[in-house]
Inverse folding.
């Protein structure tokens, strides 16, 4: 009988426990699901500022003379778009058949590139990259030495600026990264990225500094701790993909609606021919975004076209910002057009669903 593997704990585990967080396993880690409640934490992020422990994400650094050519081959997006030091981009890593191994963000930090990848895929990503790595490139797994705290919401940049040791410090541009020294001496990289649809940053630091940084952030009245529950509803309202739900090793970027991170003009990356074929020939199924009335859709619920099941919910939840159900699902391509009316089977009844263009939530100016 095999022994059950205990989930790992992030360096901030004790901070979550002290705040009374509800913990649960996620991607091999014991992570906070909620503190005060998913709806409360969701709305606090939209209206003020939320902080998230995302230290379970994996951090890889790639350096060496051949790094540029290597990553151009391994990633779908075009690194030429981030030639500027400090720039970042969302991208995919595919297998030779064009299936999605992972989605990630790559940062050009100067002498090297930093990849932030999904925790559940970290080992596989590292093995895949190492398998293809040329002799003039080195890959370093910095995950065990690194902590990441996301600060998201309309008050987030004000909070970070107040923590900076330099009164003249300014946040980097969107999808850029810059160094910061915090009052008290903690050094970190500040990435103007996130997974909520709000402005904000992700702080990447040595794990020894994480608890002090977390407590400093929590000292602000406008800052609220946020768990994975609200992180999921926030990202779903924006139509952001979740690996394992909205894409996996059985799906290609064209099916998943991610052709925009596979530029038509870029050739030669792993999986490029398969992506070009899918784009040219079309695909049998596509990921759609469904606005749902009359029920809350959940992962695995059947998607119906009349009496025929045509798919299952990939991601689904109640939208705290909109007060309705929102979902994603793979359906036959002929049913993927905007305005298509479908239904979600919820136990013994059906809820009405309509295919809409993402995002579900658009922030008012």
């Amino acid at each position: 009988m095999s022994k059950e593997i205990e989930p790992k704990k992030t360096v901030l585990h004790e901070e979550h426990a002290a705040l009374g967080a509800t913990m649960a396993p996620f991607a091999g880690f014991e992570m906070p699901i909620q503190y005060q409640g998913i709806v409360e934490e969701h709305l606090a992020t939209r209206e003020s500022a939320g902080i998230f422990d995302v230290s379970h994400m994996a951090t890889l650094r790639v350096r060496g003379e051949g790094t540029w050519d290597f990553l151009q081959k391994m990633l779908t997006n075009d690194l030429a778009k981030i030639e500027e030091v400090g720039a970042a981009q969302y991208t995919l890593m595919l297998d030779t058949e064009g299936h999605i191994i992972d989605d990630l963000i790559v940062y050009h930090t100067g002498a090297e590139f930093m990849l932030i990848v999904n925790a559940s895929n970290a080992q596989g990503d590292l093995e895949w990259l190492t398998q293809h790595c040329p002799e003039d490139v080195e890959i370093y797994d910095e995950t065990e030495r690194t902590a990441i705290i996301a600060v998201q919401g309309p008050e987030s940049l004000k909070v970070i600026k107040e923590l900076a040791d330099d009164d003249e410090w300014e946040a980097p541009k969107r999808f850029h990264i810059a160094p910061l020294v915090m009052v008290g001496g903690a050094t970190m990289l500040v990435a103007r990225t996130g997974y909520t649809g709000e402005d904000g940053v992700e702080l990447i630091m040595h794990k020894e500094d994480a608890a002090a940084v977390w407590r400093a952030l929590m000292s602000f009245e406008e800052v609220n701790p946020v768990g994975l529950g609200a992180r999921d509803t926030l990202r779903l309202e924006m139509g952001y993909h979740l690996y394992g739900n909205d894409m996996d090793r059985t799906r290609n970027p064209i099916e998943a609606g991610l052709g925009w991170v596979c530029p038509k003009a870029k050739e030669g990356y792993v999986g490029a021919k398969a992506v070009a074929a899918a784009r040219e020939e079309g695909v049998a199924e596509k990921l759609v975004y469904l606005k749902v009335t009359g029920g809350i859709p959940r992962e695995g619920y059947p998607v119906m076209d009349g009496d025929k099941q045509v798919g299952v919910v990939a991601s689904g939840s109640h939208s705290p910002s909109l007060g309705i159900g929102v979902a994603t699902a793979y359906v036959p391509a002929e049913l993927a057009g905007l305005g298509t009316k479908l239904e979600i089977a919820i136990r013994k009844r059906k809820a009405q669903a309509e295919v809409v263009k993402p995002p579900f939530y658009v922030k008012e100016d």
The two ends are 58 Å apart (CA to CA). DSSP finds eight helices and 20 strands in the chain. Helices lie at 13-18, 38-47, 67-74, 122-132, 156-163, 210-218, 228-238, 272-281. The longest strand covers residues 308-319.
